[in-house]
Amino acid sequence: MTVNYADALNYVVTGSHAEAQAWIGHEVTTEAPFPVNEAQIAYFCALVEDADENHWDADAAGRRYGALISPPGMLMVWAFPLPWNPWGRPEHAPILALDVPLPGTTLINVSTDTRFLAPMRVGDRLTFSERVESVSAEKHTALGVGHFVTTRSACRNQEGTLVATNDNVLFRYRASDAKPPTRQAAPAAADPADAVEVLPEVRMPVTVTRCVLDAAATRDFFRGHHDQAYAREQGARDVYLNTMFLHGFVDRVGKAWAGPDAWLARRRLQMIAPVCAGDTLRTDGRVLSIDDTAQPRQATLAIDCHTEHGLAARSTLVFNLDQLPGHVTTSR
What we know:
single chain; 332 residues; alpha+beta; Thiol Ester Dehydrase, Chain A; twelve-stranded antiparallel sheet; globular; HotDog_dom_sf; FAS1-like_DH_region; MCH/BMMD; FAS1-like dehydratase domain-containing protein
């Protein structure tokens, strides 16, 4: 088992599949390097152009939550360590799947399933516990040969309150096997005729500048997001946006419909193909259902992301419409 120190921003442990199997059930707990803070929130909201007043207006957010809150899409952001500090390298990689010894040193995130239980308020100190749930046998995909690693993390604040849980699937593969990706099979989209409401389309040009802002706003300096040559070695057309961008982007679209008094309770996201510099991102969003009998009332939205090259990501969002965490009842 070896650690790749060639690039301080690529913390990847290599080893055999047998060594990786021994990591199933392994868990680490880390503290976020900084408190939830207004500056990082502003950078992230600027990245995805999220105007939700709960992230900008201290008075409005204070009435609902007692303070400005972090966008839900920043959950993984707060866990990311600095790439360097005076005391040495971070003890753990930003994502535990990188610590798992496997042959593959190239990686791409595949899917997330996140539940949000309490707000991340400005000033909160967050702690993350992450556990390796499974490591697949060797798989042959359009990208190459590698292994899928599933991890589950739980985030708690300084009071011990469970803030969120996240199941993450990441694919580790060998760069020498990389080839231009073909589009993955995706679940069939819902028939627009079955939708309760069709959401307005949102378009966003993906520039190199936005990719640079993405790295800064999320502290994610994985080379595929800012190094053109590396991204192309992976089979991507150019540098590409990260998972946290897609989280924030689909959340922004859903929250624009649900309104500031709604609470995002769950988000499932499947990444289909990279969204690269030079692409134009556009959404296809639908309200699938509104359950007025649930307590609290719930709405389920489907938001797909497309580029000129086809489907890039597919997500399902569940909102509580009239009850914020802590059982604060609001009007809608």
